[in-house]
Amino acid sequence: MNGSDVAVKNVCKAFGDFSVLNNINLAIKKGEFFSLLGPSGCGKTTLLRIIAGFETPDEGAVFLDGDDVLPLPPNQRQVNTVFQNYALFPHLSVFENVAFPLRIRKTEKYEIEERVTEYLKLVQLEAHTKKKPSQLSGGQKQRVAIARALINEPRVLLLDEPLSALDAKLRQHMLIELDQIHDKIGITFIYITHDQQEALSVSDRIAVMNQGDVLQVGTPQEIYETPATNFVANFIGETNLFDGVVASVQKIENPELIYLAELDIPELGHIKVTTDDRLRAGQKVSFTVRPEKIDISTEKKVTKREDINFFQGTVEEPVYSGFQSKFYVKLKKTEDALPAATLRVIKQHAFYYDEGPDIIWKDTVYLSWRANDGYIVEVKE
């Protein structure tokens, strides 16, 4: 079974006066696990339905391996969809639910037996063939739906928030299984989700969408570490995001870190950040630093390095989560930073603490991060 390249070119769609998709262009590679990520109402499900053939765009085209599939009905596109609500037949057994597409095509009985058995084994349901959907768990129902979608041997599998009805632990388990199934069969997966962790966990690449636009396409690492817009920075994980003005820029020798900029941020004061953008003094920018990039300690650290940002603050709220703690730290007011910011800081628990946490509420703490751990998200003229 092989996947197909999928190309979406200049696709626009509106419902009445409401524009759902605004000139969408995507190139999805053969065999890729590609996620469309965004909040509810951003247009991702509409785009999926256009690829599947359930909706027609107002403008644009959809290509599979270079062939325009818009004139084709859904059953001729070699594309299958796994829906959020499973869409199983309640009166049919697991075996018959999976066999249904083959029976529609009048496949020989021996071949149906062979292939259904193969795909139920793929999704680890060979022991549940005679059960009805009502006798299955949510995760088992989803695996039946996946087997039924795959048995037609599509070149592209579309998954419309397939795990959203499951509880958190089962969702994580199913996500791993889904990734393993993708690795085994090698076809193109296009996965719809509003959950950033799901998308980051399994995707080869992600397209982040909002209000009908694709804001950024990249690998999970690119999306997380180098967000293209303030929305992407805020939507993917947690971050500390500020507006500021470039105070100065100096070129540094390291070829990977071309410039060291000093930013004037009202809530922070002066901070240093490395960038490959050609900045000039006076430019407005937005700056982000992820909570896990910030070092937190009750002891003041001394270093001769000039590319470290240092702050002092007070823990306003510690949030213990077992494997980590999140701290909301109110920075000490300075002449350059009024009003002072509250920074989110995450500390991983790498060691055993038998006497409780080493940082608690109202502690005075010292924060620091390197210039290359921050990131300039947007440069504003």
Please name the CATH architecture of the largest domain: 3-Layer(aba) Sandwich
How do the strands of the widest beta sheet line up side by side? 6-7-8-3-9-10
Count of separate structural domains: 2
- Coarse morphology: globular
Which runs of at least 5 residues are low in confidence (pLDDT < 50)?
Answer: none
Query: Structural class given helices, strands, pairing?
Result: alpha+beta
Percentage of helical residues? 10-25%
Task: List the total number of helices.
Answer: 8
Corresponding CATH superfamily of the largest domain: P-loop containing nucleotide triphosphate hydrolases
Please state the average pLDDT score.
92
Per DSSP E runs of 2 or more residues, the count of β-strands stands at 20
| Helix/strand order, N-terminal first | EEEHEEEHHHEHEHEEHHEEEEEEEEEE
Gap between N and C termini, in Å? 50 Å
Report strand %: 35-45%
Q: Specify the CATH class of the largest domain.
A: Alpha Beta
